[in-house]
Amino acid sequence: KTMDQLREELTPIAAQRVVRSLALSRLAEIQQVQVAPEEVDAEIESIVKGSGEHADRMRQVLTAQSGRDSVARSLLTRKTLERLAAIARGEQPAAAPAEAPAAGGAT
What we know:
Elements: H1 3-30, H2 37-49, H3 55-63, H4 65-88
């Protein structure tokens, strides 16, 4: 395939991922889903334990700020999807969104 064909094929997929990511971010904000530093630490330890002979290198990568940020984003996504599933099953009430400013400015 040519570069143009690949671009044409992958652009809609990338756009869907961006929209999904933005929607999940907004849902996490509305539902006040957060990830504590202790949760990131525990997730890093879990990943490192499953890394076998690469555990030391994995710990180095994941404890760097960019690695911690990546783990935190992954946890936030997981927790947000779990929250959404619990709401859909009727196990938890949805948090009401905060009042948003009216479009077009003040009245």
